[in-house]
């Protein structure tokens, strides 16, 4: 099996006793969209910065397309495109000037490809970065990320603050990118509805630890939102819930033992959860 990204035993401490990443392991196959979720401070951004060599981890190994990042940094960076929410574009530069900086960094830069994206996204290269709306800035970031034929696209909160129309356009572009055989996306976001639409795999990080790393459909099928009368709860079946809220005469909770609940709590109502339902339940444990 070929992996686009392999992380093993990754640890990061920013200060004594403050371990942000606690030996995490992640594997992402080539040709999929992997959603990376978790609350603020879970360690998602530190993980991404470690992958990109912007943060030096205290322990662990990172391989991209089977090669050590440390030993093959230049080659690997040519195969990666990045889209961050903010902070890596120079606001006072024109788009054309920003493009020149990016183009010089990649040996496979494709000017024709870049011009195609600029035209399709209705971007004006004479504008300064700071004059772009949030949506147009994200489109420009995508144009830069995709114009050197990247094989792995790494995105950190790219749809945060975008209106629904622009978000849909953004996700459509990602789908087109994936259609190109072998392309992979590592998508960190707190907008889990985006992942409901396009993700193949879901990885959840909480307090520096991987809580789950599963195929999206399997993850959702294993869980259920359960509602019912409190009288059917027992000390034993309460243990079947990841999260359980009791109020008045009723209860509502999330179980990771869907089939058992269906078989043994027949009076309860079981519903299909969203990724957000699952994430919130595990965050509260």
UniProtKB/TrEMBL annotation:
The keyword Nucleotide-binding applies. InterPro entries: AAA+_ATPase, ABC_transporter-like_ATP-bd, ABC_transporter-like_CS, ABC_Transporter_VariousFunc, P-loop_NTPase. Pfam families: ABC_tran. One of its GO terms (molecular function) is ATP hydrolysis activity. Residues 5-232 form the ABC transporter domain. SMART domains: AAA. Signal peptide: none annotated. Keywords: ATP-binding, Nucleotide-binding, Transport. CDD domains: ABC_DR_subfamily_A. The keyword Nucleotide-binding applies. This is ABC-2 type transport system ATP-binding protein. It comes from Lachnotalea glycerini. The lineage of its organism: Bacteria, Bacillati, Bacillota, Clostridia, Lachnospirales.
């Amino acid at each position: 099996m070929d992996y686009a990204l392999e992380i093993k035993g990754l640890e990061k401490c920013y200060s004594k006793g403050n371990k942000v990443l606690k030996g995490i392991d992640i594997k992402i196959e080539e040709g999929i969209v992997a959603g990376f979720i978790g609350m603020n401070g879970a360690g998602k951004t530190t993980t991404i910065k470690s992958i990109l060599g912007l943060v030096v981890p205290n322990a662990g190994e990172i391989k991209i397309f089977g090669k050590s990042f440390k030993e093959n940094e230049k080659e690997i960076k040519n195969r990666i495109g990045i889209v961050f929410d903010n902070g890596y574009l120079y606001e006072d530069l024109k788009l054309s000037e920003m493009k020149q900086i990016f183009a010089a960094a990649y040996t496979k830069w494709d000017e024709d490809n870049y011009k195609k994206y600029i035209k399709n996204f209705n971007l004006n290269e004479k504008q300064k970065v700071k004059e772009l709306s949030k949506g147009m800035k994200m489109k420009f970031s995508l144009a830069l990320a995709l114009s050197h034929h990247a094989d792995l696209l790494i995105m950190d909160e790219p749809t945060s603050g975008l209106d629904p129309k622009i978000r849909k356009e953004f996700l459509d572009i990602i789908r087109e990118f994936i259609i190109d055989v072998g392309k992979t996306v590592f998508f960190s976001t707190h907008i889990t509805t985006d992942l409901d639409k396009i993700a193949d795999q879901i990885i959840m990080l909480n307090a520096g630890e991987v809580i789950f790393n599963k195929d999206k459909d399997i993850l959702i099928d294993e869980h259920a939102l359960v509602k019912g009368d409190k009288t059917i709860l027992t000390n034993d079946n309460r243990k079947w819930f990841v999260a359980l809220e009791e109020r008045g005469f009723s209860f509502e909770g999330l179980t990771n033992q869907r089939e058992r609940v269906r078989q043994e709590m027949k009076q309860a109502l079981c519903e299909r959860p969203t990724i957000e339902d699952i994430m919130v339940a595990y965050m509260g444990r």
